[in-house]
Amino acid sequence: MKNILLAFLLSLTVFDLSFAQNNTKIDSIIQTEFKDQNAPGGVFLVSRKGKIIYEKAFGKANLELNVDMRPNNVFQIGSMTKQFTAVSILILESQGKLSVNDPVAKYIPDYPSGNSITIHHLLTHTSGIKDFTKMKSISDIAQKEMSPKMMVDFFKNEPVDFKPGEKFDYNNSGYVLLGYLIELISGEKYEDFIKKNIFDKAGMNNSFYASDRKIIKNRAFGYHQKSDGYVNKTIINFSVPFASGSLMSTVQDMLKWQDAINRNLILDAEYTKKAFTKYKLNNGDEFNYGYGWHLKDIDGIATREHGGSIFGFKSMGVYIPSEDIYVIGFSNCDCHSPTQITRDIARFVLNSSKVNRDILKTSLKLK
Protein backbone atom coordinates (compact mmCIF):
# COMPACT_ATOMS: atom_id res chain seq x y z
CA MET A 1 0.00 0.00 0.00
CA LYS A 2 2.88 2.35 0.85
CA ASN A 3 4.51 1.62 -2.50
CA ILE A 4 1.29 2.42 -4.38
CA LEU A 5 0.94 5.72 -2.48
CA LEU A 6 4.60 6.54 -3.17
CA ALA A 7 4.12 5.85 -6.87
CA PHE A 8 1.05 8.08 -6.96
CA LEU A 9 2.81 10.96 -5.19
CA LEU A 10 5.85 10.57 -7.42
CA SER A 11 3.70 10.71 -10.54
CA LEU A 12 2.01 13.91 -9.30
CA THR A 13 5.38 15.51 -8.57
CA VAL A 14 6.71 14.57 -12.00
CA PHE A 15 3.66 16.00 -13.75
CA ASP A 16 3.77 19.23 -11.67
CA LEU A 17 7.40 19.75 -12.62
CA SER A 18 6.71 18.78 -16.21
CA PHE A 19 3.79 21.22 -16.43
CA ALA A 20 5.94 24.13 -15.26
CA GLN A 21 8.78 23.15 -17.58
CA ASN A 22 6.37 22.76 -20.51
CA ASN A 23 4.97 26.26 -20.00
CA THR A 24 8.47 27.72 -19.94
CA LYS A 25 9.38 25.86 -23.12
CA ILE A 26 6.18 26.96 -24.91
CA ASP A 27 6.88 30.55 -23.86
CA SER A 28 10.33 30.32 -25.42
CA ILE A 29 8.95 28.90 -28.68
CA ILE A 30 6.42 31.74 -29.00
CA GLN A 31 8.88 34.46 -28.04
CA THR A 32 11.12 33.67 -30.99
CA GLU A 33 8.57 35.68 -32.98
CA PHE A 34 6.40 37.48 -30.39
CA LYS A 35 9.05 39.01 -28.13
CA ASP A 36 8.24 42.75 -28.25
CA GLN A 37 5.51 43.43 -25.69
CA ASN A 38 4.98 46.94 -27.10
CA ALA A 39 4.23 45.66 -30.62
CA PRO A 40 1.20 43.92 -32.06
CA GLY A 41 1.11 40.44 -30.60
CA GLY A 42 -0.93 37.30 -30.43
CA VAL A 43 -2.70 34.68 -28.34
CA PHE A 44 -1.86 30.99 -28.08
CA LEU A 45 -3.79 28.12 -26.52
CA VAL A 46 -2.88 24.47 -26.04
CA SER A 47 -5.34 21.80 -24.93
CA ARG A 48 -5.08 18.09 -24.27
CA LYS A 49 -8.09 15.83 -23.84
CA GLY A 50 -10.24 18.96 -24.14
CA LYS A 51 -8.58 20.67 -21.15
CA ILE A 52 -6.56 23.87 -21.52
CA ILE A 53 -2.95 23.28 -20.44
CA TYR A 54 -1.55 26.57 -21.76
CA GLU A 55 -3.09 29.92 -22.66
CA LYS A 56 -1.26 33.22 -22.91
CA ALA A 57 -1.40 36.58 -24.67
CA PHE A 58 1.56 38.57 -25.98
CA GLY A 59 2.00 42.17 -27.11
CA LYS A 60 -0.68 44.77 -27.76
CA ALA A 61 -4.28 44.41 -28.93
CA ASN A 62 -4.40 48.12 -29.79
CA LEU A 63 -1.31 50.26 -30.32
CA GLU A 64 -3.06 53.64 -30.33
CA LEU A 65 -4.68 53.04 -26.94
CA ASN A 66 -1.75 51.03 -25.57
CA VAL A 67 -4.06 48.11 -24.71
CA ASP A 68 -2.38 44.84 -23.77
CA MET A 69 -3.43 41.68 -25.56
CA ARG A 70 -5.61 39.32 -23.53
CA PRO A 71 -6.50 35.65 -24.07
CA ASN A 72 -10.14 36.54 -24.80
CA ASN A 73 -9.39 38.98 -27.63
CA VAL A 74 -11.36 38.49 -30.86
CA PHE A 75 -9.32 38.06 -34.07
CA GLN A 76 -10.10 37.77 -37.74
CA ILE A 77 -9.22 34.15 -38.58
CA GLY A 78 -8.93 34.40 -42.38
CA SER A 79 -8.95 31.07 -44.19
CA MET A 80 -9.71 29.07 -41.06
CA THR A 81 -13.21 30.16 -42.10
CA LYS A 82 -13.07 27.35 -44.66
CA GLN A 83 -13.56 24.77 -41.91
CA PHE A 84 -16.93 26.28 -41.08
CA THR A 85 -17.94 26.55 -44.73
CA ALA A 86 -17.04 22.91 -45.40
CA VAL A 87 -18.93 21.66 -42.35
CA SER A 88 -21.95 23.78 -43.37
CA ILE A 89 -22.01 21.96 -46.70
CA LEU A 90 -21.89 18.63 -44.86
CA ILE A 91 -24.73 19.79 -42.61
CA LEU A 92 -26.84 20.42 -45.70
CA GLU A 93 -25.87 17.01 -47.06
CA SER A 94 -26.86 15.36 -43.77
CA GLN A 95 -30.25 17.08 -44.12
CA GLY A 96 -30.69 15.59 -47.59
CA LYS A 97 -30.56 18.99 -49.29
CA LEU A 98 -27.50 18.30 -51.43
CA SER A 99 -24.84 15.74 -52.25
CA VAL A 100 -21.16 16.62 -52.43
CA ASN A 101 -21.19 14.80 -55.78
CA ASP A 102 -23.75 17.23 -57.21
CA PRO A 103 -22.52 19.34 -60.13
CA VAL A 104 -22.51 23.10 -59.60
CA ALA A 105 -24.88 23.42 -62.57
CA LYS A 106 -27.64 21.75 -60.54
CA TYR A 107 -27.88 24.95 -58.48
CA ILE A 108 -26.36 27.54 -60.84
CA PRO A 109 -27.43 26.44 -64.34
CA ASP A 110 -25.41 29.09 -66.18
CA TYR A 111 -22.11 28.42 -64.41
CA PRO A 112 -19.38 27.72 -67.03
CA SER A 113 -18.41 24.02 -67.04
CA GLY A 114 -20.88 23.67 -64.19
CA ASN A 115 -21.80 20.14 -65.23
CA SER A 116 -18.25 18.89 -64.71
CA ILE A 117 -17.39 20.83 -61.53
CA THR A 118 -18.84 19.21 -58.41
CA ILE A 119 -19.24 20.43 -54.85
CA HIS A 120 -16.55 17.88 -53.95
CA HIS A 121 -14.14 19.64 -56.32
CA LEU A 122 -14.85 22.96 -54.63
CA LEU A 123 -14.32 21.53 -51.15
CA THR A 124 -11.00 19.91 -52.05
CA HIS A 125 -9.50 22.75 -54.13
CA THR A 126 -9.48 20.55 -57.24
CA SER A 127 -12.02 22.46 -59.36
CA GLY A 128 -9.55 24.35 -61.54
CA ILE A 129 -11.57 27.58 -61.41
CA LYS A 130 -9.62 30.83 -61.20
CA ASP A 131 -8.69 32.01 -57.71
CA PHE A 132 -10.06 35.54 -57.50
CA THR A 133 -7.24 36.62 -55.17
CA LYS A 134 -4.82 36.15 -58.08
CA MET A 135 -6.80 38.33 -60.48
CA LYS A 136 -5.32 41.78 -61.17
CA SER A 137 -8.79 43.34 -61.04
CA ILE A 138 -9.28 42.30 -57.39
CA SER A 139 -8.22 45.80 -56.32
CA ASP A 140 -11.27 47.21 -58.14
CA ILE A 141 -13.68 45.44 -55.79
CA ALA A 142 -11.68 44.99 -52.57
CA GLN A 143 -13.55 47.74 -50.74
CA LYS A 144 -16.93 47.39 -52.43
CA GLU A 145 -20.01 45.74 -50.95
CA MET A 146 -20.46 42.60 -53.03
CA SER A 147 -23.35 40.16 -52.89
CA PRO A 148 -22.39 36.47 -53.10
CA LYS A 149 -23.76 36.39 -56.67
CA MET A 150 -21.68 39.44 -57.60
CA MET A 151 -18.58 37.72 -56.23
CA VAL A 152 -19.26 34.55 -58.20
CA ASP A 153 -19.94 36.59 -61.34
CA PHE A 154 -16.61 38.37 -60.77
CA PHE A 155 -14.56 35.22 -61.41
CA LYS A 156 -16.84 32.65 -63.05
CA ASN A 157 -16.03 33.56 -66.67
CA GLU A 158 -12.26 33.49 -66.17
CA PRO A 159 -10.45 30.68 -68.03
CA VAL A 160 -10.00 27.60 -65.86
CA ASP A 161 -6.50 26.63 -64.77
CA PHE A 162 -7.05 22.90 -65.28
CA LYS A 163 -9.80 20.34 -65.68
CA PRO A 164 -11.71 19.39 -62.51
CA GLY A 165 -9.93 16.72 -60.49
CA GLU A 166 -6.61 16.98 -62.34
CA LYS A 167 -4.65 18.62 -59.52
CA PHE A 168 -4.86 20.18 -56.07
CA ASP A 169 -4.41 23.96 -56.13
CA TYR A 170 -5.50 25.96 -53.09
CA ASN A 171 -8.39 28.13 -54.23
CA ASN A 172 -10.43 30.84 -52.49
CA SER A 173 -12.98 31.13 -55.31
CA GLY A 174 -14.18 27.61 -54.63
CA TYR A 175 -15.11 28.48 -51.07
CA VAL A 176 -16.83 31.72 -52.08
CA LEU A 177 -18.88 29.60 -54.46
CA LEU A 178 -19.63 27.16 -51.65
CA GLY A 179 -20.89 30.04 -49.51
CA TYR A 180 -23.19 31.09 -52.33
CA LEU A 181 -24.49 27.52 -52.62
CA ILE A 182 -25.16 27.45 -48.87
CA GLU A 183 -27.34 30.53 -49.28
CA LEU A 184 -29.15 29.23 -52.38
CA ILE A 185 -29.87 25.82 -50.89
CA SER A 186 -30.66 26.81 -47.29
CA GLY A 187 -32.52 30.02 -48.11
CA GLU A 188 -30.52 31.76 -45.36
CA LYS A 189 -27.66 34.23 -45.34
CA TYR A 190 -24.30 32.52 -44.89
CA GLU A 191 -23.56 34.33 -41.64
CA ASP A 192 -26.98 33.42 -40.22
CA PHE A 193 -26.56 29.78 -41.21
CA ILE A 194 -23.14 29.61 -39.52
CA LYS A 195 -24.43 31.24 -36.34
CA LYS A 196 -27.51 29.04 -36.02
CA ASN A 197 -25.99 25.72 -37.02
CA ILE A 198 -22.46 26.04 -35.62
CA PHE A 199 -21.73 28.98 -33.31
CA ASP A 200 -24.89 28.62 -31.24
CA LYS A 201 -24.70 24.82 -31.01
CA ALA A 202 -21.03 24.87 -30.00
CA GLY A 203 -21.48 27.73 -27.53
CA MET A 204 -19.15 29.98 -29.53
CA ASN A 205 -20.51 33.23 -28.14
CA ASN A 206 -17.50 35.30 -29.18
CA SER A 207 -17.39 34.29 -32.84
CA PHE A 208 -18.83 36.43 -35.64
CA TYR A 209 -19.03 37.19 -39.30
CA ALA A 210 -16.42 39.95 -39.52
CA SER A 211 -17.27 43.63 -39.56
CA ASP A 212 -15.26 46.84 -39.20
CA ARG A 213 -18.41 48.77 -38.28
CA LYS A 214 -20.05 46.66 -35.56
CA ILE A 215 -18.98 47.10 -31.95
CA ILE A 216 -17.26 43.81 -31.12
CA LYS A 217 -16.13 43.57 -27.52
CA ASN A 218 -12.50 42.62 -26.97
CA ARG A 219 -11.64 43.10 -30.63
CA ALA A 220 -7.92 42.92 -31.45
CA PHE A 221 -7.02 45.54 -34.05
CA GLY A 222 -4.97 44.50 -37.07
CA TYR A 223 -1.68 45.96 -38.27
CA HIS A 224 0.93 45.87 -41.02
CA GLN A 225 4.61 46.52 -40.45
CA LYS A 226 6.32 49.05 -42.69
CA SER A 227 9.97 50.18 -42.79
CA ASP A 228 9.16 53.09 -40.50
CA GLY A 229 6.89 51.24 -38.08
CA TYR A 230 3.40 49.79 -37.75
CA VAL A 231 0.29 51.02 -39.58
CA ASN A 232 -3.37 50.11 -39.32
CA LYS A 233 -4.45 47.27 -41.57
CA THR A 234 -5.72 47.85 -45.09
CA ILE A 235 -9.49 48.03 -45.23
CA ILE A 236 -11.27 45.24 -47.10
CA ASN A 237 -14.99 44.70 -47.46
CA PHE A 238 -15.67 41.32 -45.88
CA SER A 239 -18.24 40.50 -48.56
CA VAL A 240 -15.23 39.90 -50.84
CA PRO A 241 -13.48 37.02 -49.02
CA PHE A 242 -16.97 35.96 -47.81
CA ALA A 243 -17.12 32.23 -47.07
CA SER A 244 -13.42 31.79 -47.82
CA GLY A 245 -12.15 34.03 -45.04
CA SER A 246 -14.53 36.39 -43.23
CA LEU A 247 -15.05 34.96 -39.75
CA MET A 248 -13.78 36.18 -36.38
CA SER A 249 -13.19 34.17 -33.21
CA THR A 250 -11.21 33.68 -30.00
CA VAL A 251 -8.84 30.85 -29.14
CA GLN A 252 -11.28 29.52 -26.53
CA ASP A 253 -14.14 29.53 -29.03
CA MET A 254 -11.95 27.63 -31.48
CA LEU A 255 -11.36 25.02 -28.77
CA LYS A 256 -15.14 24.78 -28.37
CA TRP A 257 -15.34 24.26 -32.14
CA GLN A 258 -12.79 21.45 -32.00
CA ASP A 259 -14.63 19.87 -29.07
CA ALA A 260 -17.97 20.11 -30.88
CA ILE A 261 -16.48 18.30 -33.87
CA ASN A 262 -15.01 15.56 -31.68
CA ARG A 263 -18.30 15.02 -29.85
CA ASN A 264 -20.35 15.12 -33.06
CA LEU A 265 -22.44 18.01 -31.74
CA ILE A 266 -22.56 19.59 -35.19
CA LEU A 267 -22.49 16.54 -37.45
CA ASP A 268 -22.93 12.79 -37.12
CA ALA A 269 -19.70 10.81 -37.31
CA GLU A 270 -20.61 9.55 -40.80
CA TYR A 271 -20.42 13.08 -42.22
CA THR A 272 -17.62 14.33 -39.97
CA LYS A 273 -15.44 11.55 -41.35
CA LYS A 274 -15.80 13.01 -44.84
CA ALA A 275 -14.05 16.20 -43.75
CA PHE A 276 -10.99 14.23 -42.61
CA THR A 277 -10.64 11.80 -45.51
CA LYS A 278 -7.76 12.08 -47.95
CA TYR A 279 -9.08 12.07 -51.50
CA LYS A 280 -7.58 11.20 -54.88
CA LEU A 281 -7.07 13.05 -58.15
CA ASN A 282 -8.28 11.74 -61.48
CA ASN A 283 -4.99 9.85 -61.95
CA GLY A 284 -5.35 8.09 -58.58
CA ASP A 285 -2.79 10.15 -56.70
CA GLU A 286 -3.78 10.95 -53.12
CA PHE A 287 -3.45 14.51 -51.83
CA ASN A 288 -3.32 15.89 -48.29
CA TYR A 289 -6.56 17.83 -48.03
CA GLY A 290 -10.01 16.82 -46.89
CA TYR A 291 -12.92 19.25 -46.68
CA GLY A 292 -11.65 22.46 -45.07
CA TRP A 293 -8.54 20.97 -43.44
CA HIS A 294 -5.02 20.06 -44.54
CA LEU A 295 -4.32 16.46 -43.50
CA LYS A 296 -0.63 16.30 -42.68
CA ASP A 297 1.59 14.79 -39.99
CA ILE A 298 4.14 15.67 -37.34
CA ASP A 299 6.91 13.09 -37.05
CA GLY A 300 4.63 10.53 -38.68
CA ILE A 301 1.66 11.27 -36.39
CA ALA A 302 -1.44 12.39 -38.32
CA THR A 303 -2.60 16.00 -37.92
CA ARG A 304 -5.48 18.17 -39.08
CA GLU A 305 -4.28 21.69 -39.80
CA HIS A 306 -5.26 25.00 -41.33
CA GLY A 307 -4.03 28.54 -41.24
CA GLY A 308 -5.43 31.87 -42.26
CA SER A 309 -4.15 35.20 -43.53
CA ILE A 310 -6.14 38.36 -44.10
CA PHE A 311 -5.09 42.02 -43.97
CA GLY A 312 -3.63 42.61 -40.48
CA PHE A 313 -4.11 39.08 -39.13
CA LYS A 314 -2.72 35.55 -39.32
CA SER A 315 -3.97 32.35 -37.68
CA MET A 316 -3.03 28.70 -37.38
CA GLY A 317 -4.56 25.61 -35.78
CA VAL A 318 -3.12 22.10 -35.43
CA TYR A 319 -5.03 19.12 -34.05
CA ILE A 320 -3.48 15.71 -33.31
CA PRO A 321 -6.39 13.23 -33.18
CA SER A 322 -4.47 10.29 -31.67
CA GLU A 323 -3.45 12.36 -28.63
CA ASP A 324 -6.38 14.81 -28.59
CA ILE A 325 -3.93 17.72 -28.63
CA TYR A 326 -5.08 21.06 -30.06
CA VAL A 327 -2.84 24.09 -30.58
CA ILE A 328 -4.24 27.39 -31.85
CA GLY A 329 -2.39 30.65 -32.46
CA PHE A 330 -3.59 34.09 -33.58
CA SER A 331 -1.59 37.18 -34.56
CA ASN A 332 -2.86 40.75 -35.04
CA CYS A 333 -0.07 41.72 -37.42
CA ASP A 334 0.40 39.96 -40.72
CA CYS A 335 4.12 40.52 -40.15
CA HIS A 336 4.09 37.74 -37.52
CA SER A 337 3.01 34.28 -38.60
CA PRO A 338 1.95 31.73 -35.97
CA THR A 339 2.16 28.85 -38.46
CA GLN A 340 5.56 27.33 -37.65
CA ILE A 341 5.30 28.31 -34.00
CA THR A 342 2.00 26.44 -33.66
CA ARG A 343 3.44 23.35 -35.34
CA ASP A 344 6.54 23.53 -33.13
CA ILE A 345 4.39 23.73 -30.01
CA ALA A 346 2.30 20.78 -31.21
CA ARG A 347 5.46 18.74 -31.78
CA PHE A 348 6.79 19.65 -28.34
CA VAL A 349 3.53 18.80 -26.54
CA LEU A 350 3.24 15.56 -28.52
CA ASN A 351 6.74 14.49 -27.49
CA SER A 352 6.19 15.63 -23.88
CA SER A 353 3.04 13.51 -23.68
CA LYS A 354 5.00 10.46 -24.77
CA VAL A 355 7.74 11.15 -22.18
CA ASN A 356 5.22 11.71 -19.39
CA ARG A 357 3.51 8.41 -20.16
CA ASP A 358 6.86 6.63 -19.94
CA ILE A 359 7.66 8.33 -16.62
CA LEU A 360 4.28 7.34 -15.18
CA LYS A 361 4.73 3.73 -16.28
CA THR A 362 8.14 3.67 -14.65
CA SER A 363 6.86 5.19 -11.40
CA LEU A 364 4.02 2.68 -11.16
CA LYS A 365 6.53 -0.18 -11.34
CA LEU A 366 7.55 0.83 -7.82
CA LYS A 367 4.52 -1.11 -6.65
From TrEMBL:
Keywords: Signal. InterPro entries: AmpC-like (IPR050491), Beta-lactam-related (IPR001466), Beta-lactam/transpept-like (IPR012338). Residues 27-334 form the Beta-lactamase-related domain. SUPFAM superfamilies: beta-lactamase/transpeptidase-like. The keyword S-adenosyl-L-methionine does not apply. Residues 1-20 form the signal peptide. It comes from the Bacteria. This is CubicO group peptidase (Beta-lactamase class C family). It comes from Chryseobacterium geocarposphaerae. The lineage of its organism: Bacteria, Pseudomonadati, Bacteroidota, Flavobacteriia, Flavobacteriales.
